[in-house]
Amino acid sequence: MDVNPHALARYAALCQEAGLVPVVEPEVLMDGSHSLYRCGEVTEQLLRNVFNELNSQGVMLEGMILKPNMVLPGLACAIQETLGDVADATVLCLQRTVPAAVANRGAAQEALLHRARCNHAALRGEYSAVMEAS
Predict the structure, then answer these.
(1) d(CA 107, CA 14)
(2) What are the tens digits of pLDDT across the range 58-116?
(3) Is 67 noted as a catalytic residue in this protein?
(4) How many Cβ atoms are within 10 Å of 64's Cβ, its own excluded?
(5) Catalytic entry in 17, 27, 62, 67
(6) Which of 20, 53, 77, 90 fits a disulfide with 71 by CB distance 3.0 to 4.6 angstroms?
(7) pTM for the whole thing?
């Protein structure tokens, strides 16, 4: 809960120093018998720790992509909530913990789409460096 957020923040800071957009991926594992509620508690605390570390490392939140886990009961939990419950718990957790500055969704979607098009062209042998300028 402390070491991984620090490592993620250091990675993000180094990426940004090199002109790259870091993908910050804190994760609570699905193994175990924990409840949906417990996963929400742990995920919230983990995300708080991650954003505290990102702040202390001077990471520009607008220049990163967050890839968090969903709030899920453990695979061995006797009660497996509905997809709606999982979605609600996940959205609530993110609303409580993720700063508004992280919401660079449109730019991230455009960058991902551009990279997918370049990769597709490369698979077909049609990639050109000129594609990077478009």
Answers:
(1) 21
(2) 999 999 999 999 999 999 999 999 999 999 999 999 999 999 999 787 877 888 788 88
(3) yes
(4) 24
(5) 67
(6) 90
(7) 0.78
